[in-house]
Design a protein that fits this description.
Structural class: mainly alpha
Shape: elongated
Helix content: over 70%
Radius of gyration: 22 Å
Low-confidence stretches: none
Number of helices: 7
Mean pLDDT: 87
Amino acid sequence: MAPPVHPSPALHDRALQELSFIRRTMEGAAAFTDVPGWGLVGMGLTALAATPVAAMQPSVERWLAVWMLTAPLATAGGGWAMWQKMRRRVSGEGAFTLSLPARKFLLGFWPAIFAGAVLTFALVNPFLPGLDLRLASRVLPGLWLLLYGVGVTTAGAHSIRAVPLMGVGFLVLGVIALLLPMANGNLMMALGFGLLQIGFGMRIARHYGG
C-alpha cells in the first residue's frame, strides 16, 4: 500500500493565497446592501418635522440654525441604523469589520458631504450681521440637495439600484432649487430630504431586510 501524498508547504501556501484572492475579488464585486431603509425613513421624518419649524423662523440666521441642528440629528440616526443593519448581517461570523463594498460606499459618500459642509461655512460669514435672504430661499437648499445627491449617486454605484436612483432625484431637486427663481427652498428640502428619502427608504426596507 502506497503512503499518502501530502502537499508540500509551498503548494499549501499558494492554494491559501489563491483562495484569499478569489474571496477578495468576490467581495469586491458584491454590492453594498446594508443601506438602512428604516433609517432613511427616520431621516425623512426628521426633515419633514424640521421644515415647518424652519419656515416659521423670522430670520435667515434662525432658519439656518434649525437645519444645522437637524442635519447632525438625522445623520446620527441614519448612521446608527446602518451600523445595526451591518451588525445583524455579520452576526455569528466572528469579529465585526467593514467589508470592501462598505468601504467603497463610504468613500464614495463622504467627500461630497464634506464639500457641502465647507461650502456652507464659506458662504455663511458669522462675523457679518444679516445673512442674504437668497441663502435660505435658494442657495443653501440647492447646494445641500445637489451635493447630497452627488454623494448618494457616487456611493450608490457600489450598492443596490435604488440608491443611485435616489441620488439622481436629489440632483434634480438641487438643480431646480438653484436655477428656478420661483422654487421655494423649504419645499425643496421637504421634497428631497423628507419625501424622497421616505419613499426610497420604504422600498429598500421592504426588499433588502430593513
